[in-house]
Design goal:
With 314 residues, this protein is of the alpha/beta class. It has 12 helices and 12 strands. It has a 7-stranded parallel beta sheet with strand order 8-7-6-9-10-11-12. A 5-stranded parallel beta sheet has the order 2-1-3-4-5, with helices on one face. The longest helix is centred in the last third of the chain and has 17 residues. The protein starts with a strand and ends in a 16-residue tail after the last helix. InterPro entries: D-isomer_2_OHA_DH_cat_dom (IPR006139), D-isomer_DH_NAD-bd (IPR006140), NAD(P)-bd_dom_sf (IPR036291).
């Protein structure tokens, strides 16, 4: 059995895999080698280097492990047509992303950017606006593993959490739930609106100008899911019209964010270069999931972690 990686774990991580699974042949190559892929049974990737033409030629490929949560760059249709199993690392981002999200919220609430700017200017001023997180309401679009972890932490700060998903079905650490269809009804109650939604047919451009017009003028909008949940021109307009007070953006329609984009110079926007999930533990956690799944797969166990529904795209 040949297992091809198109990224390079640390040497000791590679050695651990080889020693744990001696019956498998591991090949670690970066970038993707198309000829090697043709004879691989398992392919492990970050999900940005596999195209439809690769699937056509990879006759032996049975399982694709994506060491990421996002799948929008994967040729899902072709993978489904070949009936290839696909899994990802859903869930490993929850700790670093929840910490990043909370850091941004507290920074804004306590005006830390202003404090830092005053320090750079050598200006002593204690007339800095500060507000409490306690008693506020957070609306979380996409209350899955990451959203649930954010909800758990926010509840510890005394925040009322509202989850929003396609069905309105209950999710962990949400005080109440709503659906995409009823989103406008709850937006006026939220002090923080956080999107952690994936990119799917249902979520692309889900948020319109009318949604931002429904929000509190003091609201913080945060996007840590995928950039196409709202058109950037719509968000720029909403910010200029003061429909909301702040936007914290970790993802964008096109990345990297182009030079001269309005977001760079807007005082009420924080640009985070798609880094909220960065962690020294990322690859370790990804390989833990892969190893558990590989053990199950080699034992003929069908129940594996994070199997992707290729029709839904998640």
């Amino acid at each position: 059995m040949k297992i091809l990686f198109s990224f390079l774990p640390k040497p000791e991580q590679q050695t651990n895999l080889i020693e744990r699974f001696p019956e498998a042949e591991f090949i670690f190559q970066k970038p993707l080698d198309e000829e090697t892929l043709k004879s691989a049974d398992v392919f492990v990737t970050y999900g940005e280097d596999l195209h439809a033409s690769h699937i056509e030629n990879a006759d032996r490929l049975k399982w694709i492990m994506v060491a990421s949560a996002g799948l929008e760059k994967m040729p899902l249709k072709e993978i489904a047509n070949r009936n290839i199993l696909m899994t990802n690392v859903r869930g490993i981002h929850k700790t670093p992303m929840a910490e990043s999200i909370l850091a941004h919220i507290l920074s804004i609430k306590k005006s830390l950017p202003t404090v830092a700017e005053n320090q750079r200017k050598g200006e002593w001023s204690n007339r800095v606006k500060s507000s409490e997180l306690f008693g506020s309401t957070a609306l979380i679009l996409g209350p899955g593993a990451i959203g649930g972890e954010v909800g758990r932490i926010l509840q510890a700060f005394g925040v009322h959490t509202i989850g929003c998903n396609r069905s309105g079905k209950i999710s962990n650490y949400m005080d109440e739930m709503t659906s995409f269809a009823d989103l406008k009804a709850v937006l006026p109650t939220a002090d923080i609106v956080l999107s952690i939604l994936p990119s799917t047919d249902e979520t692309r451009e889900l948020l319109t100008y009318k949604h931002f017009h429904c929000m509190k003028r003091s609201a913080i909008f945060m996007n840590f899911g995928r950039g196409d949940v709202v058109k950037e021109e719509v968000l720029v307009r909403a910010l200029k019209d003061e429909c909301i007070a702040h936007a914290v953006l970790d993802v964008f329609e096109k990345e990297p964010l182009r030079e001269g984009h309005p977001f760079w110079s807007m005082n009420n926007v924080i640009v985070s270069p798609h880094m909220s999930s960065h962690s020294s533990q990322y690859v370790i956690r990804a390989l833990d999931i892969f190893s558990r799944n590989l053990s199950a797969w080699m034992s003929g166990i069908e129940k594996m972690e994070n199997i992707i529904d290729l029709e839904k795209g998640y």
